[in-house]
Each structure stands twice: as structure tokens, then as C-alpha cells.
Amino acid sequence: MAEFFSTYGNLIVSMVLGALLGLSLYLPLMAGQLSLASPGFYALGGYIAAILSTKVFSTASNPYPILLLLLEMLVAGVVSGLLGVAVGIPALRLRGIYLAIATIAFVEVLRVVSLNLDITGGAVGIFGIPQPFPTQIEYLWVGLPLLIVSMVLLYRLERIRVGRAFTAIREDELAAGAMGINPTYYKVLAFTLGAILAGMVGAISAHFLNTWNARQGTFDASIIYLTFVLIGGSRTFLGAVIGGMIFTALPEILRNIADTGGLPSWLAQFLRDGRLIIFGLLIVFGTIFFPQGIVTPNIFKLQPKHRNKFLKNSEKENA
Amino acid sequence: MPNTILEAKTLNRRFGGLVAVNDVSFTVNQYEIFGLIGPNGAGKTTLFNLITGLIPLSSGQLFYQNTEISQRRSHEIASLGIARTFQNIRLFGQLSALENVMIARHTHIKSSIIAGLFRLPPAPDEESKTQRKALELLEMVGLSDRVHEQAKNFAYGDQRRLEIARALALEPQILLLDEPAAGMNPSEKQQLSDFIRQLRNNFNLTIILIEHHVPLVMGLCDRIAVLNFGQLIALDTPTVVRNNPAVIEAYLGNE
Questions:
Q1: Number of folded domains in chain B?
Q2: What's the pLDDT at A186?
Q3: ipTM over the 0.85 cut-off
Q4: Distance CA A293, CA A236 (A)
């Protein structure tokens, strides 16, 4: 067991973080807003944790106190949330693909800024971020509760007034307005909740990866998180969670396949390095064949209609 | 002296060079069924969109219960008590009938997001009350056996009735119906006419409706306004409007 955790600890924690990032993109999507800003807030949260832990809370205690990690997550969440409101109010005036483009620009701006500031360590970034846990798998102590709490709250959110307002805006913004729902307010709220979550995940990731630089949370990451949600399923939070887990594990799985041997060298090479190409293809084919993703809300309720069809078919077979 | 609930003062709306609504003034009395008729392109739906704040006025003023609402946005106007249906039905198609109606209870739920997420009082009570209220409304429009079906799968007439239930969920003072009888057969139209009268009586509503079917409008409405090329050409009781030469000319053309 210990061996299993030391081999796969990194992957398991990454999958949990991937699921959380999927959720951070799912939140604005609940209100129909295709925002790719999550990696930006993720990078911001990581920098906040990295700077706080290496430069501000200069504690010599080893391991690094978990309470301080939680404090960093709180700060990262609050700062990301405030920036989320500030960016969301102007950006959410844009619709559809234009919002996606504006949020990509936001991610790029953050990247270039972090490359050029002293406090973020320029191109080198910040390294030697202290470790609160002796092994990587133990990051689950923070990651898993955050994931479970997020999932429970999202489950609740889909069943209350605010969640219904999000859905209404996603379905028809104009009609939602005519029902007394303030579209701007709820769009900014959904965007901000996603920003807070991404910022908190960034704070965990900075410790988890031990180093943080401008390569974290870039445009590539936007596409990867988008794959999580689009292929996983954009109609229920479980889609984002399962998509996040599967697609975080996928590169590892592909690498294992590439290493099995017996494959032509170009194919093995492609499986190792062609991750973004494969994700891109999955987005294209996924949106054609699974427009709602793999996990749809209907999975949970076998609809009577389908059941009847199923019964009729089996009756036919019997006859 | 009847009570004025809605007052429009020289409303104007231009789309580029086109004047879709041109200096239209009128008042609507409380508990009135107010008809709005006119040839295609006369500006009826534009007038609805102006009243409900979906599009801004070019000029003019709107008063609702003596409060100016000219600059208000659509969600504010809806929460003040003016609800509407749409000519080209705008239900939340992917959602169930029940969800459609529950969404429209938005302004009547007071508990915060935190209370909702953590099931703190009064949120659970309010949620079950919301669902009960929505089911009542669906029963009233005769859709109680199909509450979990997706709205997009409903037949046209049922979609219209669902839209009315959704609008009523706002508990409005004024209900605007944009061509509620479109696509209905004569017996359905007669039923609809009775239904609208019942709505007015049961909910103490003021109803403004756009309708092309002249017999329905004539039989149902207390007063009728006639629009032609964005201008109000007549506003009176059905009998007077029916014999107004300008109205006859607008509908039949002159010799």
C-alpha cells in the first residue's frame, strides 16, 4: 500500500486538484458564461501562497504549519474573488466566444506581469516552497476535503434560488431578466465563485509542486480545463469532477501505453508529447458526439420514457 | 373614477431611421383587460418591450403606480410587478415545467445564498413553499400531470399555458400577453378567452394583450388601442373602435 501511494501519490493528488479546477470552470458555465479565466486565478493563488510562505511567514518550523497553508488558501481565495469581481463586471458584458477571448487575454496579461515582476521571481519563478506534508499523497488531507465541500455546496447550489437563477441565465438571459433575475449580478457571482475556487487550488498547488513560475496557469491550461468540463459534462458538476480526474490521469496513462513497447517509435513519441493535440481532438470530436459531455444529468434518473422503450424492445424479443 | 395603474407619455422608439413607436400616450386602468391591436409591423411588440424594459426608450416616460419606470431595467420592472409572455415563446426549454415556474419565484425568495447552501432557516421552508406554489400554478393551467417534462417537448398550446403560469409566478399586478391565442383553434381560443377573464378576477390582475384574432379581442377587452405604423390611431371601447374609420382603413385599406 505504501508503495502504491508513493508511486501514484502525485497522480492521485493531481487528479483531485484537476477535479477542483474543472469545477472552477464549471461555475461560470452554470450561468452560461464560457470563461477561460480559471488558470489566471490559479496562477495568482499559487503566487500568493508562494510569496506568503517563502517571504512573509518566514517560519523555520518543519514541516510547514498546515494552519498557515489554510491561511494562504483563504488569502488566495479572497484576493482572487476581489479580482474576479473587478474583471468580471467589465468582461461579462461580452458574450460567448468574445468572453472566452477576453478571459484568455486576462490569463496572458497575468502571465506577462508575473514574468516581469521581481516579487514573482521573474522567469525563474519562486522555488523551495516549504512542504507541510512529508509525502505527496498527504496533500489529500487538504485537497480532498476541499473537493468534497465544493461538491456538496454545488449540489446544494443547483437546488436553490441562486442556482436556478444561474440556470435561467444559461438557458435564456433575456427571459431570465423578464423573470426578475438580474443577469449581470448572477453572472459576476458565478464568475467570482469560480475565481475563488481556482485561487484556493493554486495555493495548494504551489506547495504541492514545490515551485511556482509563469508556466503555471497559461493558455495551455485553459484548453486543458476546458476539456475537463466539455468532455466530462457541462450540465452537472459531476461531469467537471470526473472530467478533471480522467483528463489529469490521461497523460500518465498515455505515457504508460507508450512505454509498453512494440509500438512504432513515432506513435510512442506522439503519445508522450502530443497531449495538447489529443486534447484538442477530443474537444472537437467530443462536442460533435457528446455535446453535453460524458456525464449528463440523465444518468442519475433513468427516465420512464427510456424504461418503456427498453421494456417494449424486450417484449418484442420475447414475442 | 378608475384607478390608473400604468401611464405612457409620448413614448418613442427609433431603430435607426425607422420610428417603431411614435409619440404613443395612453393610460391603463387597474383590473382592466386592455387590448392592443394593429397590422403586422405596427409596433405592438416593440411597445411591450418598452413597457417591460427589454429595450430602452428613445424618449418619453412610463409611470407604473405613479412611479417612473422609464429608465428601469427589465429585471427591476419584473420585480415591481409587471410580468409578460413572449410572442415567440421563450421558455427555458431544457428545464422541466416545474423548474420553469420555480425560477420565476426568484423575487419572492428572501433567504440568502449562505442560508440556501447550508439549509439554514428560513431557506428550506421557502424552497418547499416555492415548489408548492409552482405546482399550484401548473395545476391551474392544467399541466399538473406533466410537471417533470422538459418544456421544449410540450405542444405549442401547452407551452403558451406554461408561459402564463411562469409569468403568474411573479405575482404581478400587470400581465402582458403577447399573442396568447396564436396557433390555437377556435374552441381553444374561446377557452383562452374565458381563462384570461378568470385570471383577471382570481388574481386581481390588469391584463394588456396583443392579439390578431379580432373577435377574441372584441369580446374580451374593456378597451382597445389600435397602432398603425407606430402611431396610436384609436383608443376606446370595442364598439367604438370597431366603427372608427381610421381603424377600418388601417385594416382594410382605403378605396
A1: 2
A2: 97
A3: yes
A4: 10
Tens-digit pLDDT profile for residues B90-99: 999 999 999 9
Binary contact (A180, B106; C-beta < 8 A)? yes
Q: How far is A157 from chain B (nearest CA, A)?
A: 6
Please state, in angstroms and rounded to a whole number, the distance separating the CA atoms of residues B120 and B117. Answer: 8
pLDDT in tens, B99-142: 999 999 999 998 889 999 998 888 999 999 999 999 999 999 99
The CATH code of the domain that includes A187 is: 1.10.3470
Is the Cβ of A153 closer than 8 Å to some Cβ of chain B? yes
Same domain for B165 and B176, yes or no, is no
B78 and A179 within 8 Å at the Cβ level: the answer is yes
In the A/B pair of chains, how many CB contacts fall below 8 A? Answer: 87
| Residue A130: domain span | 2-318
Structural domain includes residue B86? no
Indicate the number of domains in chain A.
1
pLDDT at B254: 64
Residue B186 is assigned to a structural domain of this protein: yes
Please say whether the beta carbons of B224 and B241 come within 8 A: yes
> What is the rounded radius of gyration, in angstroms, for the C-alpha atoms of chain B?
19
Put simply, the answer to whether A161 touches B83 (Cβ < 8 Å) is no
| Closest CB to B109 among A161, A176, A178 | A161
> Whole domain around residue B208: which residue ranges?
1-81+172-255
pTM, to two decimals: 0.90
Q: Spell out the alpha helix ranges (H) of A179-218.
A: 183-209
| Shortest distance, CA A306 to any CA of chain B (angstroms) | 13
Q: What whole-number distance in Å separates Cα of residue A154 and Cα of residue A7?
A: 32
Task: Return the residue of A nearest to B175 by Cα.
Answer: A178
